[in-house]
Amino acid sequence: MKKDNFYVGRRMITNYAKEMVILDNWRVLAATIVELAIKDYVRALKVLKAKPHNSECRGAKMSSEKFFKSEWFNMLSDIDPEFLIKNCKRLADY
Question: pTM score, two decimals?
């Protein structure tokens, strides 16, 4: 077996295909991280609408907004943070 190939089951995958699989997996992971952050943010906003003094949700809101404006988020997604925050607030009726 050559070093630039690997096997999945009985199928040999070339180095290029291996890189594409890794890239696709990375994109799926990045999208999942962003999706979960959005869900957590919207959930926190909905709770804060009903209970504005909920400190746990205030912390989650602040943490989410900080994440959306971070370099890491920028690496994971090309979504504009201000656009995202605005639309999440609209979604949560906040």
Answer: 0.78
